[in-house]
Amino acid sequence: MQSGVPSAGDVYADSMERPRNRVSFSESGWVTMTQQHPEMAEEQAFILFAYECLEASKTGAMKIRELTSSGPGGTFQARLERNVFDENLVHRLEQLDLGDAALVFGRIDRTAEEGDEVEAFHIGRLAVADANREPVVVDWRAPVAEPFYRATGREPMGLLRRRHFVVEAARLLALEDELFGEGHLGIGNDEGLGGEDDPRQGLRGYSTLLTALGRSRTGQLGDIVATIQSEQDEIIRSPQAGVLVVQGGPGTGKTVVALHRAAYLLYTHRFPLEDQGVLVIGPNRIFLRYIERVLPSLGEAGVQQVILGDLIPEVQFGGRESSSVARVKGQKKISRVIDKAIFDRERSLREDVVLPYSTGYVRLRAEESVHIIKAARRRFPRHNAGRRFVENEVWSAMAATFRGEAEVDDVRDALREMPEMRAVFERMWPLLTPAQLLHDLFGSKALLKLAAQGILPEAEYLTLHRERSESVADVRWTTADAALLDEARYLLGPKPRRNGKINDADEIRTYGHIVVDEVQDLTPMQLRMVTRRSLSGSMTLVGDIAQATGPLAANDWNDVLEHLPNKKEPRVVGLSVGYRIPAQIMELADKVMLAATPGLRAPRSVREGDEGPVIIPVAQDASLVDAVVQRAREVIARDGGRAAIICAEDIIPAISDALNAAGINHGLARAAGLDQGLSIVPATMAKGLELDDVIVVEPQAVIAEDPQGLRLLYVTLTRSTRSLSVVHKMPLPDAML
User: In terms of CATH architecture, what is 216-336+434-574?
Assistant: First the structure.
């Protein structure tokens, strides 16, 4: 249990006696959040009891693990079974480790299925039972917990009361009740707030929600398991099969909804999903660090979270290139260029090869090499798998030319180490890695012309040429190269091992479910890369067309869906309510969104901020950087939270130097995430992040960073939950006026 938390004995006498779920109702439609609720002490006691049961489960799991850790002895089968059992126990212990997250966050009361008795269920982030295996806390993903998120005044789903807790670890701070039934239409029910156009209409646990939204950011995305709203829950619990696209504007919670959906699917379909694996793909390393704690806090520590480059083995990334080059590499037809480049490496001999053998000679005729290449292409759709066939056919053809009798194996043994034979195989059918293929292709204008002619215009394929490095290991590949390397890996196939067999571990791994965030930015080639890893076509894709940036930014979800699995009809759903961003900030951002994507509708904010955006113009004879430093000093003087300066890439060094000179501690998000109280974030990496206070520097420079500049500016203006400042020396874009 957390230090500083009162023990169960401080609240009720017998800590081993389970507290009673006494049900009583007030006369009002709802009880607003209060620390003076008459059942505060009872609920606090129950929460502490739940923590004691959790600790008992941990202790029991540790004892079992100690019993199974008896060393390396025994039969192979016994050791294998012991290791599997131990892995399961470790996984269970990981699930039980909540860190600072609250175990219990709510309760529902309903009429029992049989009789008129009222039964209560406490809802939490994982299931906990007492010593008699009676449920103490119900996992939020269990079917019985669904009304906690879905019930409304018009559709109470059998509830009499829904109770929300405001908790810090095991300490209960406040309660909020919503009552259901005749005469009770409180906050969180259909008629709880405002009129039909009020974005708060239909929200549940409104006071609890506002409390959660008002907390300072920590630099890490937190889960929303205690405050999931109905439209979010519908997405989380939707069927697994097929592609589900979630369109959501800034602050609608689309990222956490996708992560909670992954946790829900793992709970609901534990077998086979746990073995098949769940993959989460984010846009950049900053984003991955930002979301890394969400799934572990929900008890799912085994989900793989990556950027696309992480899926490409044995290469190094970090190269830079222009958006025009990235655009060429992102087109679907580049896959045909790669296929043709492989075809071009399967070549017949120009002339016969004659080599001494025994008392005479053996010959490989150029005409015979043509037949061998054609046969290999027919038999082996993946290049590397055909190498052994080509070798065997070459040895057979050469052995047949010896004037006496020659065994194929003898010819092979005698000639295989000769440089001339290695040259034959390297010409006819070289074993290639994806990096070797593309390194050769991009380093030669002649090879590019040969592979791309008739597929890409000359002006496009020549942009792919770059100076050849001395070694393929020296190449620093770009973000756009990841999908091309993956295409080449798929078409080439793995290299055969010495015994000629293919190791399954060398194949591209597939997953039972894939989550992709900011999917609207992926190019057709990158979407092919994602699709290739889908075992059954089950995906959750989240994004916002209004925030689509990059060289081939999508303008419609059909632009994305045409490159994804279509085994089942895809579903596109929307999140309409903005929870994070204050209405005053969204008002400014909406102007930019309407200019960038006139056909889209902005999300409706559920809360007002304490202040509107602050626009800070800088005189032409004054320093822009000094003005940024001064505003940063004012912002970080506030209590708590995380702040960020978001700007174009080329101004980051000057701002960082000026902050250092002023003695202001800060971090560079590219290297350290959002670990510092103040971070400098490149505009191109701001997507998906949320901060308390944001300073956007020089909007015109942000627009110049990306072909979809206004959309990128919209991204930067929608990162704040508390205050937004805009510092500029160049004129503001018309869209902001």
Answer: 3-Layer(aba) Sandwich (3.40)
